[in-house]
Amino acid sequence: MFMLRRCLLPVMLGIAALLSAGCWDRSEINDLALVMATGLDMEEDGAYRATAQFVIPVRQIGATSANGSNHNFMTESATGRTLKETTQNMQYKLSRTLFVSHRRLLVIGENLARHGIRDLLDYFSRSPTTRLRTYVLVVKGGKGEDLMKAEYPLEFVPSEAIREMENLGGTVPITLLDVINAASAEGMSPVMYSVELLRPKQGSRNGGNTSKFRTAQIAVFDNLKLIGYLDERQSQAYSWLTGRLKSGLLAVPSVPGPGRIALSLLHTNSRIDSFVRDGEISFHVHLTGKGTVEENTGRLDLTNPVHVNKIEELAAESIKDNMLDLVKEVQEKYGSDILGFGNILHRQHNKAWQACKDNWKQLFKEADVRVDVDLVIEKIGMTGPPLQLKEKEIIK
Amino acid sequence: MGNTTEQVSNTGFGAMMLVFLAGSSMTIPLASVAGHDAWISILIGTVGSFALAYVYVRVCQLFPGKSLLDIVGVLFGSWAKRVAGLLYAWYSFHLGILVLRIFVDFISTVALPKTPNLVISIVMMSVVLWAAHAGIEVLARCSLVVLFFILAEGAVSMILMSKDFDFSHMMPILDRGWGPVMEGATQIVSFPFGETVLFAMILPSIRKISRANKLVFAILLCGGLMMLVVNVRNSLVLGETASKMIFTTYTAYQYISNADFLERVEPLAIVTWVMGGFVKSCVCLYVCAQALAVVLPVKHYRPYLLPLVILTIEVSFFIYKTGTESVQFALWVWPWYSLPFQLLIPLAVLLIAVIFKKGTAAPAAPNGG
After folding, report:
1. Which residue of A has its CA nearest to B119?
2. DSSP sequence for A306-350
3. Domain range holding A393?
4. Quick count: other Cβ atoms within 10 Å of Cβ A379?
5. What is the pLDDT of residues A24-47, one digit of tens each?
6. What CATH number has the domain bearing residue B15?
7. Does residue B60 lie in a domain region?
8. What 3-state class would DSSP assign to A62?
9. Residue B281 in contact with residue B308, Cβ under 8 Å?
10. Do the Cβ atoms of A350 and B109 come within 8 Å?
11. Which of A76, A93, A341, B255 has its CB surrounded by the most CB atoms within 10 Å?
12. How would you classify the pairing of strands A135-140 and A73-80?
């Protein structure tokens, strides 16, 4: 009996070792093509074209390319009528199994975005390997394929650059989950941040021979079709309104006198209250934030609270204008509730919402929106007046 | 029951029941009809389950040392006992099949798509067989370890997900009205709470039967709270999507991303599921074998284990054609189908026992009858 028990343990461990290797699904790392990003486009004939960007693992560590000809990444494209077919066609061209669990970025070409993203979303949410955390972006005025093929020497994989830019860019990135939630919610339309591919100018030297990316503007969707972009100011206002703004920038004229004062915005928050009175729906947007003076090209001595209060006022006014401009643009030009006002109404006045949700698209355009801003300038930096000014130039 | 020499500590019993409750129900969306209001359903369901549990616990306390089936035998005679044994054997067998099937579906969807389901089933069930063969005492001690892991993992995941919490997802409260919430609550009462009726076959083995009622209610409460926390957590992270996903917790784990390096922790969710599924399958198998031991001439449960395991694997393959069927069955058929086992039979036994003042719950005779 004792012998039997002693034999049993190694046998059991052996069996466990055999089984935990993953059976039929074992996959060695050197059999995988690690997809870092995928660009999606629409062909002339309506087929999808997907371009995936893979890392080349051996070139990741230390071996930065000396002559510039060795890429750290590889791209492959394929077309198909459905996304699965596209993926399958791509697989046929690859020596390794496609592995998308680490994909962090999904970019959608402008063409496809304008055609509509309704049919894309299911594939990504149904697949157990795609993470809903994947960032989604629209390529403004370009194709996803071009973006995937563009080089970016600062990072090993170019798509990583875009992802990092999204993280750094002062806003909370929009993920696949956000898009899906906004698309399925009744009083809300999704938005995505956009990325632009800046082509190198011919003949320019010194870093001018690679492409650059620029992120910032927000792509507006209606009925899951791209219908336009917000400009930078509106995008910042949008991010603030929806609580996605981590840090922002604002320049206000210095009063009195020439020059401008640049503020960075931190700890921004927003609260939206909805009101229903006699069938009239109105929204009250309450924005709060803290500002830091980063630059002062005027002549003000900012140790004087009167000046700071004045700047606060001007800044608040400017933020309010931007916000109202955003609301007006969205209500009148796009008519798509990307601000999520319907959702707010749903949460705060469910009964009123149930009554008007079928007609929401029209009511949204007519809704009255008021804005008030509560901005506090907490810090003015290391100095009161600009140091280079002579005593008599400073406005105390 | 054939073998009453085994003794389970109250703690071990509690752990076993808690894992049984939480194991598989933590991974799939409960009361998904109620959307983000499922937490209300869970609260109501937990309270409702007290009534259900009261019945079988009371019955077991009236006859200390006897399982539900033995009590049926005392009250209605040996043939009734055999019929009841057959019924409960079937019920726990069926439950075991469902647990295995949904486990295999999950594993083959998210982790091992190419591995034949048969292999997954055999690997799982052989461990289950081993544990069930070792007896309820061993299983109770296993559960303690599993419970510790589930709690630790749950706490860690809460911390990791907390930065993605969006409390506006929970508004408005009662979005779809009371109807769906109550519907969700009834589903929760039968799955997973009502299934604890199987523990009426194990209750006689615990050391302090007099404290069983408090223990069971505490466990139901803890189980309810665990489900509540998990459900709310998933809703806070995923929003409305939470109630539409099939393996919500797994999806929520996939969403974790912290500081650029803490990514892809979803295997934790798989491990939780495996452990919970293991304990639940074990309990089902054990109870089924014990019930058969009452019905059939062989009075020990162990000889029945291997055939039952083989049958469970076999039947789990053809009980449904697709995962869709299993979801529909779990939602619309299971609550009604379970009603006699979870409520009617124990209730009838309790009523008869109380009306005819039977029972041996005198303090002097803990093993009477």
Report:
1. A23
2. HHHHHHHHHHHHHHHHHHHHHHHIIIIII---TT-HHHHHHHH-H
3. 232-396
4. 14
5. 777 777 788 888 889 898 888 888
6. 1.10.4160.10
7. yes
8. coil
9. no
10. no
11. A341
12. unpaired
Terminal Cα-to-Cα distance of chain A (whole angstroms): 96
Contact B255 A177 (CB under 8 A): yes
On whether the CB atoms of residues B127 and B301 are closer than 8 A, the answer is no
Q: Is B254–A22 a contact, with Cβ atoms under 8 angstroms apart?
A: no
Contact (CB<8Å) A101/B264: yes
β-bridge pairing A247-253 and A260-277: antiparallel
CB of B112 less than 8 A from some CB of A: yes
The reply to whether A236 and A225 lie within a common domain is: no
ipTM of this complex prediction, to 2 decimal places: 0.78
Token couple for B9: 């500590």
- Check whether residue A185 and residue A254 sit in a common domain: no
Tens digit of each residue's pLDDT (9 = 90 or more) over B82-128: 898 899 999 999 989 988 888 888 888 888 888 888 888 988 898 89
Q: Cβ contact (<8 Å) for B119 and A24? A: yes
Rounded to 5 degrees, φ, ψ at A134 are -50, 135
Structural domain contains residue B3: no
Residue-wise pLDDT for B124-151, tens only, equals 898 899 999 888 888 888 899 999 988 8
Q: Is A25 in Cβ contact with B255 (below 8 Å)? A: no
pLDDT digits (tens, 9 = 90+) for A161-176: 778 777 777 788 888 8
| DSSP assigned state of A173 | P
Beta strand A368-379 with B262-263 is unpaired
Mean pLDDT of A68-75: 68
Give contacts of B114 with chain A, Cβ < 8 Å.
23-25
Question: Is B251 within 8 Å of A132 when comparing Cβ atoms?
Answer: yes
B2 within some domain: no
Q: How far is CA A119 from the centre of its chain?
A: 21
Residue the block writes with tokens 């389950």: B49
pTM value is 0.82
Q: Which amino acid is at A391?
A: E
**What CA–CA distance (Å, rounded) separates B117 from B80?**
38
Please state, in angstroms and rounded to a whole number, the distance separating the CA atoms of residues B365 and B31: 44
Residues of chain A in contact with residue B241, where contact means CB-CB under 8 angstroms, are: 125, 132, 177, 180-181, 184
Asked if B262 is an interface residue toward chain A (Cβ–Cβ < 8 A), one would say no
Query: Domain range spanning residue B351?
Result: 10-169+178-355
pLDDT digits (tens, 9 = 90+) for A259-302: 888 888 888 888 888 888 877 888 898 989 888 888 888 888 88
* A18 occurs within a structural domain: no
Residue A318 domain flag: yes
Yes or no, beta carbons of B264 and A350 under 8 Å apart:
no
Task: Provide, as residue numbers in chain B, all residues whose Cβ is less than 8 Å from the Cβ of A350.
Answer: 172, 175
Q: Is-contact B195 B23, C-beta < 8 A? A: no
**Does B255 contact A at CB distance below 8 Å?**
yes
How many angstroms separate the CA of residue A258 from the nearest CA in chain B?
Answer: 43
Which residue is closest to A348 within chain B, CA to CA? B172
pLDDT range class, residue B282, cuts 50, 70, 90:
very high
The answer to whether position B366 is within a domain reads no
Confirm whether A387 is domain-assigned.
yes
